[in-house]
Amino acid sequence: MTSRDELADEYFVWLTVEKGRGRATIEAYRRDLRGFFTWLDDRGTSFNDLHGDDVDAYLGDLFDRGRAPTTVARALASLRGWFGFLMDEGHLEVDPTRHVRPTHRGRHLPRPLDEAETVRLLDSIPAVTALDRRDRALLELLYGTGCRVSEAVGVRLEDLDFDEELIKVTGKGDKQRLVPMGGALHRALRAYLGPQGRSSLLAVPSTALLLNARGRPLSRQGVDGIIAKRALNVGIERNRISAHVFRHSCATHMLAHGADIRVVQELLGHASIATTQLYTAVSVSSLQRAYQGAHPRAQG
Fold first, then answer.
1. What pLDDT digit, counting tens, does each position of 77-136 carry?
2. Per-residue pLDDT at 116
3. Angle between helices 243-256 and 220-233 (to 10 degrees)
4. Domain extent listing, the chain
5. Which residues are catalytically annotated?
C-alpha cells in the first residue's frame, strides 16, 4: 500500500510536470501538507480515517495559533488540491474537504440543519421495509449521538445496552466512550432489530449493527448514499447535508437548548474543547439573527 508521504510526493511531481507549477508554489504546498500531517500525527489520527470534522478542527487550530485568514485559506486550498488529486487517481473514495466552506470571517463554522427540517427528515422515513428501518436507525444514531460516520458504521450489536440506554462507540485512536441512547433512537433501533429488520437483511454471520442491502456491513460510502436519497425525498439539497452535518446539528441544537459545552465535548469525543467551541459560535449567530428579527429595538 502506498504511504501517505509517497502519495504526497506523487502529487508534487504531478504539480510540477502536469500543471507546470513553480518551485515556490510547490514549496508552499509542501509546507501546508507537512503542517497538516504533523497535526494529524500529534492527534493520533489515521490518514485512512479522515473526514470533514478533522479538516474543520485543523483550520480552527490554525486560527487559535494566530494564523492570518489568508494563511488558513491557502492551507484549505492546498488540502483541496491534494485530496482532489487523490480522488482523480483512485486513492480516495470520499473527499473530506467536500463540505468545508470558509466563512466571511475566515474561520469555518458548522452549517447545521435547523431543528424543524431535521425532524421533518427523520419523520419522513417510513417503517415499511427492512431498509426503511435501517435508514431510520442510522439517521437517528447520527443525529441522536453526534457520532462520526466511521464510529456509526463501526457499532456492533454487543455495543448496545438497552437496559442502561447506552451505546459504546469507538473513536479515533481506538478510544472508546459511552453515549446515551435517547428515546427516538431507542425506538428506531428496536424496530430495526425486530423480525422485519436487520435479520431479514443478514446474508452471512456478522456482528455489525448496520448492514447494506446485500447483508454486509454498511460502508461510509453507503451512508452517504442513504443520506442523499432520504434528503432528496424531503427537498433538502444534497450539498447541504452529510453525516458530518448531522454531527454539527446534534451539537448545535443541544447547545441552543442549554447543554453545558463540556457535556457536548464528551458526547462528541473531542480531544480539545476548542473544537467544541466552534459550535457555540453557531449558536450565538443563531441568537443574533433571531434577536435582529424579533426585538422591537434591535434595528436602532
1. 899 998 899 888 888 888 888 877 664 444 455 578 999 999 999 999 998 999 999 999
2. 93
3. 70
4. 4-88, 115-291
5. 148, 172, 244, 247, 270, 279
Q: Using alpha carbons, select from 191, 216, 207 the residue that is nearest to residue 157.
A: 207
Q: Residue 142's closest CA among 152, 157, 131, 134? A: 152
Task: Please enumerate, as own/partner, the contacts of 181-188 that have beta carbons within 8 Å and a separation of 24 or more.
Answer: 181/144, 181/145, 182/144, 184/122, 184/140, 184/144, 185/137, 185/140, 185/141, 185/144, 185/145, 186/162, 188/133, 188/136, 188/137, 188/140, 188/141
Contact 83, 95 (CB under 8 A): yes
CATH topology of domain 4-88: DNA polymerase; domain 1 (1.10.150)
CA distances to 41, 122, 201, 221, 232 from 218, rounded to whole Å, are: 28, 19, 11, 8, 20
Name the superfamily (CATH) of residues 115-291.
Intergrase catalytic core (1.10.443.10)
CA distance 244 to 262: 20
